[in-house]
What does this fold into?
Amino acid sequence: MLFNSPIFILAFLPLTLMAVALACRSVGASTGIAVLIAASLVFYGWWDVQALAVIGASIAINFAFANMLAGDRVKNRLLAMWIGISLNLVALAYFKYTNFFLSMLGERPLNIVLPLAISFYTFQQIAFLVDIYHRRMKSLTSRDYLVSVLFFPHLIAGPLIHYTDIMRQFRERFAVTAQTVATGLPLFCVGLVKKVAVADNLAAIATPLFKQAESGPVEFFSAWIAALSYTGQIYFDFSGYSDMALGLGLMFGIMLPLNFYSPYKSTSIIEFWRRWHMTLSAFLRDYLYIPLGGGRCGAARRYINLMLVMMIGGLWHGAGWTFVFWGFLHGVYLSINHLWRSLVGELQGRIFTYVAGALTFTAVMVAWVFFRASDFPTATRILAGMAGQSFISLPGEIGHFINISKIIPLTGRGMSSTELVVAVLMLAIAFLVAFALPNTAQLFGLKGDPPAIILDFVAPRINWRSAIAIGLALWIAAFGVIGSAPSEFIYFQF
Amino acid sequence: MRQIFATLLVLCVTSVGWITIVRYLARPSIATEWIDGIYAKKEAAAAKVEGPKIVIIGGSGAHYGFSGEAITRATGIPTVNLGVHAGLGGEYLLDRAKRSLKAGDWAVMALEPQLTVATAPSDVLAAHVLRNDIFYLWRTPRLGDAFRILFGLTPVDVFATQLRRLVPWTAPTGRADTVSHWGDETLELSKSIAPWMRKHLQDAPPISPQHFDPDNPPPVLAPFFAWAKEHHVQVAQAWTPLLMRPEYLEEPYRSSFASLKKVFVKAGGIPLGSATDYFQPIDCMYDYILHANEFGRARASDVLAREICKARACRPQIAAPPS
It folds into this structure.
C-alpha cells in the first residue's frame, strides 16, 4: 500500500486511526499498540503476503538474539551479537545480492523475490542488536519490539529509528486524538504534494531521457535536463516520503526522526551528508564508520574508512555496480572535502559560499546520474551529453522565437519545444522550492540542529490560513492520488 | 471543525475553478477539439436518418477503417460511422452511442481489442468530458471513475497543451473538417505515409490475445447488451481493420477471436464475419496497426457490407445519403 494511493488515504489511514483511537480510549494504550501492529501487518502484507513470512522470521530471530544479549545467561555476548548480525546480513545478501553475484560469475539468475523494505528493517535490527549489546536499553517486550520494527509510517523506507527513542515516545505520548491528527495532517499534505506534484512530474521528464540514453547519445540540453530532473525527483520523492512518514507518525503522537534538512543548500559534501537521508548517515557513522576506527587512526585510515563506508552505502541502495560507483564517488568527494579542510580550512565569504554550493550541487548531480542509470554506458552518455560531447540542438520553434539559429543548430533532434519549456518550468519550480523556501523542519517549527536526529516538536495550531493551505495542498495532490495511478517511491526498491 | 469545513470548501471551490478554466478558458488539445468536432458531425448524420439505420461503434480504428457512405451504397441501409477515439474507452464510447441509437437500429460494434476490457479513465476522456460532456460524471460506471476524470487533467497537462497550441497544427489527421457529413474520414492517407510510419508498423508488437467467457460477458459490454435488448436495438459484431500478422492465424489468437465472437452470439448479437476477414496488408494501413488508409477502409467496408447483406436483406444503391 502506497502512502499516495487512494486506498491508503481514503480507507486504510482513517480506519486505522479510528481503530487505534477506539482501542486506546476503551481499553488502553497497550491494546492501541496491538491494533497498530495488526494494521501495520495489513499495510505490509498488502504488497505481498508471502513477504510477511520473511519479516516475521527476521523479527523472531532478532528478538531471540536480543533476549539472549539482554540477559546474563550467555557467556560470550560479543559472539552472540556477531552471530545475530551475520544472520541479518546473510538474509539480506541472499534476497538482495544473490543474483548480483551470480551475474558477476556469469551464472543464470535465480527466481528470488526481494521482500519489500528488507534493507531498511535489516539495518534497523542490526542497530538494535548492537544497542542491546551495549546495554543502551534495559527491558524488552515482544509487543514493544514488534511495534518498533513494524510501525507502518517508517516500515518501508525509514526513517531509521533507535528502539529506545521510539519506545520512550510510545510509552509517553502514544495517542490518537483530534489534536494529533491535526498536527500530523499538514506535514503529511506537504509530503504528498512534494511527491505527486513535483517528484512525479520530474520523473515524467527524467525517465524517457534516461531511457533514450540506454540506446544512444543524448543531446546537450536534454542531458542537462535529465540530470537535473532526476536530482530534483529523488529529493522531492524521498523527502516527500519522509515528510509523509513524519506526519503519519505525529497522527499517532510519535515524532519520527527528521531525514532531510535542505540538502541541496549544502556548501560541502560533508554538510550534504549531514542533511541528506540523515538517519542512514547517522547509522553508517555510528555502526560502521566509527567501529572501523573512523578518523581516530590517522588520515590514511580515515579516507579508507570513508571510501569503504560510502561504497557499502552504495551497495545497500541497490545490487549493481552503478550504485557501488555512486558510493565510491561520494567517498572520493568526502575524502577530498576532508583533505581540503585539513590543508586549507574553511573559506569565508559570500562568493565562496556560492561557489562551494554550486560545486557541491554539481558533484551531487553527477553522482546521481550513476545512481539513476541502468548501466555505465547509459550514465556516460548522459554525462557526455552534458559535456557537449554528443550534439547540441534546440527545437525549431524555440530557436525561431529567440533568434539564435546561427548559434545553435535547430535540428529538432532533442526534446520538443513543449517538452523543453515544461521541463524548464518544472525544474525552476522544483529548485526554487529546494533552494529558496524553508524546509519542512523550518516550516513546522521542528526544533533542533540538522545533526540532531530526534527533535522537539511544537504542535502547530490549526488556523484559517493553514486550513486553506491544506485545502489547496489536497487539491494539488488529488491530481496525483486520484487522477492517475499512484507511483512508487524511489526508495521502496531499496 | 470549522477549519475542516474551510479545508473542504477550499478543495471544492478550487476544483470548480479548475473545471471552469479547463472548460471555458484554456484551449483544448488537438485531440479534444477533433473528438468534439467529429462527434458533432457523426451524431448530426445519425440524427438525420429517420428510419432504421446501422451505427458503427468503435475508436479511431473504426473511424479510419470504415466508410458509412460506401456501406450505405452497398447495402441500401443508412450507415453512420460513429468511430471516434479509443482513448475515450469502451464504456464511454458505448454510453455515448446510445444517444444515436433508437429502436430498430443496428449497433455494429467494431471495438479495438483493448476496448473490451475496462480501463481507468484516460486523460483523453478527462479532457473531453470536462470540456464537452460534463454530465457524464453522473453516469460513470464506477464512482471512482468520476473523481478520476475530475482530476485526470493536471495543470501541467493543460499548460503543455497551451504551449502546443501556439504552434500551428500542420498534420493531415486530427482535423474535423476532413470528415464528411456522413461522418466518414475523407483523407487519402496513403499519400501521407512517411517512412517512419511504415517502420513503426513493421516493428509493432502483436496485440495481446484475450480470452472471454461467453457466459460472463466483459463488464464493458454487458450493460450495453442489456440496454440494447431493452431498447430493441440489434447488436452486431464486426472487427476493426488490423494489420495482418501470420501469428494471428494460429493459437492463442484463433481461440481468442473465437471467444469474443461467442460472447456476442450468446448475448443475441449477430457476428458479421470473423477477425481474419478484416485483416489488412501493410499497404492498406497508415500509421498504426489499427489505422487503415483509404484502401484498407474500402476493403473493410466491402467486407462489412457483404456480411450485413448475409445477415439481413439489402437494397444496394437505393438509399440516399443523409443531407
Notes: Chain B has twelve helices and seven strands. Chain B touches chain A at residues 3-4, 6-11, 14-15, 18, 120, 126, 144, 147-148, 150-156, 159-160, 163-164, 166-167 (CB under 8 Å). The mean pLDDT of chain B is 91.
